[in-house]
Amino acid sequence: MASNPMHQFQVYKIGPEIKLGNVDLSFTNASLFMFLSFSAILLFLFLGSSKKSLVPTKLQLLVELSYNFVSKMISDTAGSKAKPFFPFIFSLFMFVLFCNMLGMLPYSFTVTSHIIVTFVLAGIIFIGVTIIGFMQHGIKYLNLFVPKGVPALLLPLIVVIEVISYLSRPVSLSVRLFANMMAGHTMLKVFGGFVISLGIVGGWLPLSFSVALTGLEILVAFLQAYVFAILTCIYLNDALNLHH
């Protein structure tokens, strides 16, 4: 019998229970894979940049491509004013990417398939961008909710729509990543269950679908990290340049 496809998203404790009052601080499988993602990023960057050469190795080339990719993304989306925020955007992109990719390994855990993780990331971005906006423009940052050229009669309605749209940013940002990762991994598990259930004779069709879905999920893992980072750049652009 095929296992429950939702079982792969279960969070469980590893080691002793740790509590601080009513707050559970126990180490879990989610904590483990966040730590593994962080460690993998450090190892990747260290090995790729420790021995720089005129003719780069494959690892050095990947590190340089990652750096240039994020740098160009920031320049094209948020302009030169956003350059000081490169370390944050780069760290965010690499963390989401490595969490997504590690989740593709057999018997692993996909951290970004949990709404609480993606919502906390999106919440940090939302609060940070809002603070930056008010630091840059003061009270004039509220002009973001008042588009130019709107008739006075429609202005109250437009302002309400703009405020709702702004407040929904962390929700849409977090749900997009969580839903894509959860749906893809669920489909992979379902088709994998069909392969086991149908056996060698009848399992070739779901197996071929599983292989195709795996390739698609690897692409989605990268695209979702890219979308998460570029939307952050767009929000940062609004805060720095006050486009409205």
Task: Write a concise synopsis of the structure shown.
The chain is mostly helical and 244 residues long. The chain has seven helices and two strands; from the N terminus they run ββααααααα.
| Number of structurally distinct domains | 1
The topology string of helices and strands comes to EEHHHHHHH
Poorly predicted runs are: none
Mean pLDDT value? 87
Radius of gyration using CA atoms only: 22 Å
The termini sit apart by: 56 Å
Helix content: 55-70%
Structural class: mainly alpha
Helix count, DSSP H or I runs of 4 or more residues: 7
Give the biggest beta sheet: 2 strands, antiparallel
Hey, roughly how much beta strand do the residues contain? under 5%
How does the overall form come out from the CA principal axes? Answer: globular
Number of strands: 2
Strand order of the largest sheet: 1-2
Structure description:
By secondary structure, the chain is mostly helical. The protein has one domain. Helices cover 68% and strands 2% of the residues. The chain has seven helices and two strands; from the N terminus they run E-E-H-H-H-H-H-H-H. The chain has a two-stranded antiparallel ribbon. A hairpin with a 2-residue loop joins strand 1 (19-20) and strand 2 (23-24). 24% of the residues are buried.
